[in-house]
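How a chain folds remains the central question behind the approach discussed here. In the encoding step, the backbone of a single protein was reduced to a row of integers, each denoting a local shape. We regard such an encoding as a compact summary of how the chain folds. The sequence in question and its structure tokens are set out directly beneath this paragraph:

___
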Amino acid sequence: MSVKIRLMIKLSPPTKKGFVRFSIRVIYKGKAITKNIGIKVHKSQIRRKKIVNHPYANELNKKVAEELFKVRELVYSLGAGIITFEEIKGLNKGLKKDLEKDLFEHIYNTKSNSAYNIYSTAIRAYKKINNQKKLQFCTESLNNLILNYGGSGSTINTYVASIKALNKEAYRLGLVKELIETNKLHKVKRSLNQMTTVTPEEIIEKIRDSKPEDYKHWVVFVFSLVGRGLYFTDITTFDINNPRHKRSKTGVVMLYESNRDLLRHLYNQLDISDIKRGKFKQSQAKKSLGLKVARKTFETTALGLGIDKTIRRQLLGHTVEGIERHYADMNNEAVKARLMEAYTRVLEELKIKEIMSELDKKKGS
């Protein structure tokens, strides 16, 4: 009795912009192989699995037919017992495929832009530290990233999670034959700078002992501190002439109607184009202190002063259930007065003028 082998053209779910990918699927004894053809068109250009209203419709339909013919030949060989299902599967996972190209084509078609960008950055870091010209997934290489990458602990954690996710996706697509052994991975050790808060005296001492070439990193740290825990995405989009800043991460509006002279003095010393570079961000925690330390230090200082949680979290640009109306209505004078009074109290407790004085001395050295 012959075993039925099913062969079909499949279309992927549409992306957010409406694009779909063509693939060929073979089903044999309840098992399936999917072969990506490498064709992506808009869903409006497809009629009954044929490409229409496309400038290269004929060529693309011809390519689909050719790929279908190749797979059909394999299927006939399978039915005749000339080749096994596992051998076909092996061919589908063969080395002729471009792992990185095919994987990221799939990611581009199925994931969000932000996910695509994070995965791309992680792969660049992974390949660079392992001196890989062509992408290869293995446990040893990921451990090398964990142990030797120069970024912060949170950055390394993000990269590790991304590499593991990409490895699983590549395995699912048949682009690789093995998964990274997660039980053999080292634990990510977070740097001290990423874990602690600091006192004003410690900041002053660290600035005093720093190298002249580290000055620009200290300016970024102090600006983040005065700005109430701003991250790089906030700093690079900060408009010093606008007393309101919309946080990139949360979309929450932060008010800066007081202490503007302090902010402007520091902002005028920032090199935004330099700050945008990945190398600058990676060396921030090494050359001064990380921006998470600035944020945590501001928050801890506000907590120590007994500032109300609602105001404290508004200062930091958090979203908190029940106080969204205050974020939306920044014309409320009572709300603004409370926020700015608390803001000034924290900066005074942080001895920010003494810190900036020490920073100015370092600039002149």
Q: What stands out?
A: The domain at 99-189 is CATH 1.10.150 (DNA polymerase; domain 1).
